[in-house]
Design brief:
The structure holds 5 protein chains of 5 kinds. Chain A is an alpha/beta fold. Helices cover 36% and strands 27% of the residues of chain A. Chain A contains 11 helices and 10 strands. In chain A, strands 6-7-8-3-9-10 form a 6-stranded mixed sheet, with helices on both faces. The longest helix of chain A has 16 residues, at 174-189. In chain B, 37% of the residues lie in helices and 26% in strands. In chain B, strand 7, helix 6 (170-185) and strand 8 (189-193) form a beta-alpha-beta unit. In chain B, the strands form 2 sheets. A 6-stranded mixed sheet of chain B has the order 6-7-8-3-9-10, with helices on both faces. A 4-stranded antiparallel sheet of chain B has the order 2-1-4-5, with helices on one face. Chain B starts with a strand and ends with a helix. Chain B is an alpha/beta fold. Chain C contains 12 helices and 16 strands. The chains are: A alpha/beta, B alpha/beta, C alpha/beta, D mainly alpha, E mainly alpha. Bound molecules: adenosine-5'-triphosphate (2 copies) and magnesium ion (2 copies). The site of one magnesium ion (MG) has 4 residues of chain A, from helix 2. Chain E: The chain crosses the membrane at residues 48-67, 79-99, 156-173, 206-225, 280-299. Chain E: GO terms for molecular function: branched-chain amino acid transmembrane transporter activity. Chain E: It is a multi-pass membrane protein.
């Protein structure tokens, strides 16, 4: 295996925006195999926007995005899913009138995933016992936090080559936040690379391998998480210390 | 102290699921009541039952001395309840200012007065720069703040906040806590659902812990976070 | 040259009729111009589409009025022709009714509106004259059932029909209306069947007739006389309904074998122009323009008042029918036309009544 | 004395007519379920099916039911193309916008037919058109029976498709949440084209099955069918395939009974009244449901 | 006076000159104005309150019938009939709204079709009340101050006043509390309730206002046609045309309905003379194109862009 192969996601100098409004400026980042990479930054700094571009919901204005070595700008979200990307967006995007179980099963919609469907389902259930309890309930009836778990479960069903998550701990109770972060770490250790967007920088720095810091659409800091934890700027601006 | 809100043995049921079971609470003027509990515990449901958005099976809600159990939500709003929604509900085709204006019109029938109230609510949540932007163009964090501005513009006596701090980074969180303090200082009471314990600890005068629809503990924040059951069901051990 | 205004439904709901009227007018136009036009001047048509809508028809009338036409011909539906007749009267612009047969257009009528074709009273009378005639040979014909679509024309024909039936001593065993566009007539026909009528008089628009004919057979209603007004007079009716169309009758203003002078030639010309079997609609189009040309010739001027006076004095024999405009029974400017009854015999329409115009003898269905 | 024969005659007619209504309505409800829009061109699609059978019958002498072999795939393709090239442009706009776009499609189809075929009503003359099956004294129209069987077949097939296949899952997922569906790898544009194609194929099937009995006029017939389809699907609950049967049967029986025992002039009003009453009692239709949370 | 009011005043003055300059097209002018008025009235319910009615022809029919029957059977002057029509339309709207406001989205729209169809059937079948299928003629009308109400120019000015009033009402509403309450209910009923708004009351007010104003236009339409027939007037197509006019022009905007009316009526008139048989086909294609290219409607897209641009400049 050469080192190029190791890079799962490579974002090269992208500009992003909505209609006429630019929100991300010349951002480059990469995620390698087995890595858990954090992406943090203030509200509205453009984190979600970058994730949207990676999963094909919006097209870059400038720059390239490479996924497993292939240029992907211009692909649709479903094409990205076929290529092995799983996105847990903010707002969850569940199927409210389908049962929780059907929601999760739809995660293995793609033909190559169907063989392992049952096995993966059990894995998800063991990760989130609560979700199993509500397996036959319509997803729309779940509480906000319960829905978040279903969304993560569904994404795991995709057996992704890269998992990107937008604030998965949003709205989860402290107990679950810990569980989810641990689960994400486990997932990464299993060999699934993860790009994680979170507000809770403490958690991110604690669990992730490397972290990028975004401010007003520009990368301002990057490096191994353990190093950043002590960085004065982080301590001041994000940990409020 | 004056009791502004009282709920007695509230029960809410969805089909076979008892979402809130026999929960009572009361709130004094200028105080903050924290509502915590695991996901799906019934916090939002209790909240909805009190503000009139969820059907109450049994029990009573008394607001400012009036029984409002069977009163439609908009009447409760008129008598002084203001709330946010956990999943934000902007009026998508209106601008940010107009969104708040709708609420401000409640107490200020004149456009000019209403606009002033709306603008000051936007300033309080730091959205004044976005006043003329379409609300559908806001990101999630700003929509949250818009929710809060809408509730503030009602000039309520009791403010109900459902997870408005979720997704805030630490500095913003700090600001928000400060801001809510200034509100209670003016005599406003607050009921808040929150998973961010830091906020609960700093703000709540009294905390109620729900799990599976039942009240499992209550008391001051420090009592509650040291409670065995609460740690087991909600906080987890480090 | 002389320009005549035409308002016709060329698009929209009534386009099927509009194009037939148009064919008839074109045939008349060629004939008139071949005959030297209007006192040597070429006749021209300014045709405006009304989109099967009243507002558009009024806009068309306004624009024709401004173009100084001596008279206007139009339109098909009574909901459109009604407003036209009102405005034409106010503008003192002679209007020759093209297709509308509703009584209300010429009753009470006005000095400026003329109709050479039939109306519902005349048609209802035609049916009952025919039934009376049959009754002379078949006295058992007594019970009659009436079914009609709730449009203006079917309703007024049927209501007048019921009045005639009662006056002439028939027993009305059923009278049922249905909403235009209904496709299932079984409930009505089944109800009729239990009272076994001898005569079934249905009045409908073209579309419904096909379904009605099939369902009459299906429910096993065995009336001896079956009239499906208007719909059964179309060639397509025979083609689409097939054997079950046999012996069904309809009253029409004209049929290809009716015994007027020049009818066979008119039939050929209409057929050549339409490139299909012509119906009374084409003939009525022909009639309207022929009447107009006759009046314009006699008026000797394009002055509207003079044209109006000439129209009022019309006394014309055409291959479609004889035309005079008279006031009678509350009508004004109405041609007391003799409607004819046509019957489908051996897959063809033949005229069976009145006897002096008929080419074949009438038959009973059962 | 109560006339049982005519009662059962009417009842059986009502049921069969109802089956026809269901057949017309089921395509509309499918499209609504996924696209969240009411297809005002649905009736025109039915009419397109009728014209297709008329043309093939006239040119090649084919029995209408035989033309289904071509009509169904062709209908599917045309429907999919309309979705792909026209409606997909407004898929993100408000549902009303899409609804009005289908109205434009309806205007175009109706008037195109008018230009090409003229306004005369068209039908085919089949020897079995007026033949009946006799059950004692009750007569049952053979064509209606065929149409009823077509309804059953179509609905069974749809049920299997939606509930037992991956495409069915994908359709349901797309109906619920398009972005969510995209994220698990479903090509929602393709699914929408498939669904619209299916809707059109169903409409065409209804048209072909009915032409031996009824007639097609370019502009007017389509609107009538669209209206019936609305009532049927809303009665059952928009987007619910099985409920379209119940909605159709209910409408058929109510109309026929009303026309038989009350006043036939108000036939359509009975159906509409039941429709309004059902909506008032159960705003989501008889079998409709939707999870709602605050 | 707001800038919209000023613009309206200018437009009214210009429109008042129309009969003097384009006297050959008064009928088209009347149609434009009537559709402007109807569409603007519809917009109050459909655009501002978000309740997409496909049954507004009922109100047109109601106005037209009451004026026509009033004139032909009872000899009522049209202005008295118009007042009766407004009252009846208001009552109808209250009942109709109470019945159907529990319904949402397409269910509401379809229920309006159903109720309008039922009214059409009643108009056709209850001849004692309405003259039945053959319709009603208005034979004579009074001549106030010697003004001939059958005169097309007179009718034009009646329609102009009517259209102007509907637009003026919309302008007044647009900046006031009621206008925002309507939009709030449209965009999110629950949030509106949380803001102290009773959605049912707000929607009812909109329905009554919309229905009453539509009926007034219906009354003028009755005089304009002077003959009305249920099939022509209680027509689903008319209901759809009214809705379409607004959607083409821009829902929830002040000028959208007027722009839509001008575009649709004038293009309809041009196509009618230019394309003969194919005219409705071309019309359908035009509608499709406008909807596909400008899904918010002509004025709607413009306003939307304007709001976005303003923000972009500030940011
Ligand atoms: N759909 C949209 N249309 C227009 N502007 C948008 C849209 N979504 C986001 N924006 C703008 O883009 C900027 C970046 O937003 P983004 O959601 O990427 O930030 P974020 O870093 O994810 O913030 P948060 O932590 O609050 O989720 C913000 O200014 C936001 O207002
Ligand atoms: N409309 C509804 N229909 C059916 N079940 C519901 C409904 N609303 C809530 N529930 C159920 O009631 C329970 C309590 O939900 P609620 O939203 O009150 O939880 P919560 O404590 O606010 O959780 P979270 O912290 O995740 O927001 C959940 O199990 C949920 O599934
Ligand atoms: Mg974000
Ligand atoms: Mg909650």
């Amino acid at each position: 295996m050469n080192s190029v192969d190791e890079v799962v996601l490579k974002v090269e100098g992208v500009d992003l925006g909505y209609s006429t409004l630019q929100v991300v400026f010349d951002v480059s980042l990469e995620v390698r195999k087995k890595e858990l990479v954090g992406l943090v930054g203030g509200n509205g700094s453009g984190k979600s926007t970058i994730l949207r571009a990676v999963s094909g919901m919006i097209k870059p204005w400038k720059g390239r995005i490479l996924f497993k070595g292939e240029e992907i700008s211009g692909l649709e979200p479903h094409q990205m899913a076929e290529r092995g990307l799983a996105h847990v967006p903010m707002g969850r995007q569940l199927f409210p009138n389908l049962t929780v179980k059907d929601n999760i099963l739809l995660g293995s919609y793609l033909p190559r995933l169907r063989a392992n469907r049952e096995r993966n389902l059990e894995k998800v259930f063991s990760l989130f016992p609560d979700v199993k309890k509500f397996a036959q309930t319509e997803a729309g009836a779940l509480s906000g936090g319960q829905q978040q778990m279903v969304a993560i479960g569904r994404a795991l069903m995709l057996e992704p080559d890269l998992l990107i998550m937008d604030e998965p701990s949003l709205g989860l109770s402290p107990l679950y936040v810990k569980q989810v972060m641990q689960a994400i770490r486990q997932v990464a250790d299993l060999g699934f690379p993860v790009l994680l967007v979170e507000q809770n920088i403490k958690q991110v720095l604690q669990f992730s391998d490397r972290t990028y810091v975004l401010e007003n659409g520009r990368l301002v800091l990057q490096g191994p998480s353990s190093e950043l934890e002590g960085h004065p700027m982080i301590r001041k601006a994000y940990l409020g210390l | 102290m004056q009791i502004v809100l009282k709920a007695d043995s509230i029960k809410v049921q969805y089909g076979g699921l008892i979402a809130v079971n026999d929960v009572s609470l009361s709130l004094e003027k200028g105080q903050v009541l924290g509502l915590i509990g695991p996901n799906g515990a019934g916090k939002s449901t209790l909240f909805n039952a009190i503000t009139g958005f969820a059907p109450v099976r049994s029990g009573n809600v008394t607001f400012l001395g009036q029984d409002v159990t069977n009163v439609p939500p908009y009447v409760r709003t008129r008598s002084g309840m203001g709330r946010t929604f956990q999943t934000e509900r902007p009026y998508e085709d209106l601008t940010v200012l107009e969104n708040v204006l709708v609420a401000a019109f409640l107490k200020n029938p004149k456009r000019k007065d209403a606009e002033e109230v709306a603008m000051s609510a936007l300033e309080k949540v730091g959205l004044q720069d976005r006043a003329n932007q379409l609300s559908s163009d806001l990101n999630l964090a700003r929509l949250r703040r818009l929710e809060l501005a809408k509730a503030l513009a009602l000039e309520p006596k009791v403010l109900f906040l459902d997870e408005i701090m979720a997704g805030l980074n630490p500095p913003a969180l700090k600001e928000m806590i400060e801001f809510l303090r200034t509100l209670t200082a003016t005599g406003m009471s607050i009921v808040m659902v929150e998973h961010i314990m830091e906020a609960i600890i700093q703000l709540a005068d009294h905390v109620i812990v729900l799990a599976s629809g039942n009240k499992i503990a209550e008391g001051s924040a420090s009592d509650v976070i040291n409670d065995e059951r609460v740690i087991e069901a909600y906080l987890g051990t480090d | 040259q002389v320009k005549v205004g035409v308002i016709n439904s060329l698009s929209g709901n009534f386009a099927a009729f509009g194009s037939r009227y148009n064919t008839g007018m074109l045939v008349a136009l060629e004939e008139i111009n071949a005959d030297g036009g209007i006192n040597g001047q070429k006749l021209e048509l300014i045709t405006q589409d009304d989109r099967s809508e009243a507002q558009s028809a009024l806009a068309a009338l306004e624009s024709l009025n401004k173009q100084d036409v001596p008279l206007v011909i139009g339109s098909y539906a009574s909901g459109i022709t009604g407003p036209l007749s009102k405005v034409a009267t106010r503008q003192k612009l002679p209007l020759i009714v093209l297709g509308s047969a509703d009584d209300s257009i010429t009753k009470p009528g006005s000095d400026w509106v003329f109709r050479a074709k039939h109306n519902s009273t005349i048609v209802a009378n035609a049916y009952f004259n025919y039934f009376d005639n049959l009754r002379q040979k078949h006295p058992e014909l007594k019970k009659i059932a009436v079914m009609y679509g709730n449009g203006a024309w079917p309703t007024s024909v049927s209501e007048e029909g019921v009045r005639q039936a009662e006056k002439r001593g028939y027993e009305v065993v059923g009278k049922q209306a249905y909403d235009q566009g209904t496709t299932d007539f079984r409930p009505i026909l089944n109800k009729f069947r239990t009272s076994s009528p001898d005569i079934l008089l249905t009045s409908s628009y073209a579309d419904d007739g096909i379904a009605i004919a099939r369902q009459i057979k299906e429910v096993g209603l065995n009336a001896k006389v079956v009239a499906i007004d208007t719909a059964s007079s179309m060639i397509s009716f025979i083609q689409q309904v097939g054997d079950q169309s046999e012996n069904i009758v309809s009253a029409v203003s004209w049929s290809p074998d009716v015994k007027y002078e020049g009818t066979p030639q008119l039939y050929e010309r209409l057929k050549a122009k339409a490139k299909e079997e012509p119906s009374f609609y084409e003939a009525e189009g022909y009639l309207a323009l022929t009447v107009a040309a006759d009046a314009l010739r006699r008026a000797g001027s394009l002055d509207r008042e003079k044209v109006r006076d000439a129209l009022a004095k019309t006394n014309l024999k055409t291959p479609v029918t004889d035309v005079t405009f008279e006031s009678f029974d509350g009508f004004k400017g109405q041609n007391p036309i003799k409607s004819v009854i046509i019957q489908i015999q051996d897959g063809k329409h033949v005229t069976v009544f009145p006897e002096n115009l008929a080419s074949q003898a009438a038959k009973l269905s059962n | 004395m109560f006339d049982y024969v005519s009662f059962f005659q009417n009842l059986s007619n009502g049921v069969l007519i109802g089956a026809v209504y269901a057949l017309i309505g089921v395509g509309l409800t499918l499209v609504f379920g996924v696209m969240r829009t009411i297809n005002f061109a649905h009736g025109d699609f039915v009419v397109l099916g009728m014209y297709f059978a008329v043309v093939l019958n006239g040119a090649l002498g084919w029995d209408p039911y035989l033309t289904l072999v071509l009509a169904i795939p062709l209908g599917f393709i045309v429907g999919a193309l309309i979705q792909k090239f026209v409606l997909t442009r407004v898929i993100d706009a408000k549902p009303e916008t899409m609804m009005l776009a289908t109205l434009g499609v309806s205007l175009v189809i109706g008037n195109l037919l008018l230009l090409v075929f003229g306004g005369e009503p068209k039908s085919v003359n089949m020897p079995y058109a007026a033949s009946t099956l006799k059950l004692g004294e009750i007569r049952i129209s053979v064509v209606l029976l065929y149409a009823g069987l077509a309804t059953l077949g179509v609905i069974a097939a749809l049920y299997l498709l939606l509930n037992k296949t991956e495409v069915g899952r994908a359709i349901k997922a797309t109906a619920e949440n398009r972005l969510g569906a995209e994220l698990v790898g479903i090509n929602t544009k393709k699914i929408q084209a498939i669904v619209f194609g299916l809707g059109m194929a169903l409409a065409v099937t209804a048209g072909v099955s009915l032409i031996p009995l009824l007639f097609a006029s370019p502009v007017t017939t389509g609107a009538l069918f669209t209206l019936k389809a609305f009532v049927v699907t809303v009665l059952g609950g928009l987007g619910n395939i099985g409920a379209a049967i119940i909605g159709g049967l209910l409408l058929g029986v109510v109309e026929v009974m009303g026309a038989s025992y009350l006043d036939s002039a108000y036939r359509d009003a009975y159906g509409l009244l039941v429709f309004v009453v059902v909506l008032l009692v159960k705003p989501e239709g008889l079998f409709g449901k939707s999870v709602k949370r605050v | 006076m707001s800038k919209h009011m000023l613009f309206l005043a200018v437009m009214v003055v210009l429109a008042a000159l129309y009969p003097l300059t384009l006297s050959a097209y008064i009928t088209v002018g009347i149609s434009v104005l009537l559709f402007t008025g109807w569409a603007t009235s519809w917009n109050l319910l459909g655009g501002w309150a978000g309740q997409l009615s496909l049954g507004h022809a009922s109100f047109v029919g109601l106005g037209a019938y009451i004026v026509a029957i009033g004139a032909s059977q009872f000899g009522f002057a049209p202005w008295w009939s118009m007042l009766i029509a407004m009252a009846v339309a208001g009552i109808l709207a209250v009942i109709w709204g109470k019945l159907t406001f529990g319904l949402h989205g397409p269910y509401f729209s379809l229920s309006t079709i159903a109720i309008a169809e039922i009214m059409r059937l009643v108009a056709i079948n209850e001849g004692w009340l309405t003259g039945g299928a053959s319709g009603v003629f208005i034979e004579t009308l009074p001549e106030p101050f010697g003004i001939d109400l059958f005169d097309k120019t007179t009718q034009y000015y009646m329609a102009l006043v009517y259209a102007a009033i509907t637009i003026a009402i919309t302008i007044l509403i647009s900046t006031r509390r009621f206008g925002y309450q309507l939009k709030a209910v449209r965009d999110n009923e629950e949030a509106a309730m949380a803001a102290g708004i009773d959605p049912t009351v707000i929607k009812l007010k909109a329905f009554v206002l919309s229905g009453v104003l539509t009926a007034v236009g219906g009354g003028i339409y009755g005089i304009f046609l002077s003959f009305i027939e249920p099939h022509i007037i209680f027509n689903l197509l008319l209901s759809i045309q009214i809705a379409l006019t607004v959607i083409i022009g821009g829902r929830g905007t002040i000028w959208g309905p007027a722009v839509g009316a001008v575009l649709l009526v004038v293009s309809g008139e041009v196509f009618r003379t230019a394309f003969a048989q194919a005219n409705l086909l071309v019309y359908g294609v035009l509608i499709l194109i406008v909807i596909l290219v400008l899904p918010r409607g002509i004025v709607g897209e413009y306003v939307h862009k304007l709001v976005r641009r303003k923000y972009a400049n500030r940011a």
